[in-house]
Amino acid sequence: VKDDLKRSGLALSGGQQQRLCIARCLAVEPEVILMDEPASALDPIATSHIEELIRVLKEKYTIVIVTHNMQQAARISDFTAFFYTDESRTGQLMEFNATREIFTNPKSKLTEDYITGRFG
To answer: Which residues belong to CATH 3.40.50.300 in the chain?
Structure first.
């Protein structure tokens, strides 16, 4: 992307657009980066590039990722929080722990059901 800084973002591929957005974010030197579905609608190769970039960036930045992709969360996150919205549309934090613990030994049945694909 560094060679295409003057080009319109619309001329870039989906993965390049996502990397451009991340580069623009880094330009302001944030302490925390919030990513909402950072690899949604990307092909597997572009997704792997984004995930590798996140692995590198998390050494310097706090990165919060919102995703419905459980496999991706398991691959790239250090900690995982599971939020659930009930019938009244009130969101609650159901569980927070190290990612390995959440995925191998969830404390909440609701968390286990979600990460195993029983609902969601």
So the answer is: 1-68
- Give the model confidence (pLDDT) of 13-69 as tens digits: 888 888 888 988 999 999 999 999 999 888 999 999 999 999 999 999 999 999 989
Distant-in-sequence, close-in-space partners of 120: CB < 8 Å, separation ≥ 6: 68, 113, 114
Say whether pTM exceeds 0.90.
Answer: no
* CATH 3.40.50.300 describes domain 1-68: yes
* Alpha carbon distance 85, 75 (integer Å): 24
Contact yes or no for 81/69 (Cβ under 8 A): no
The total number of residues shown for the chain amounts to 120
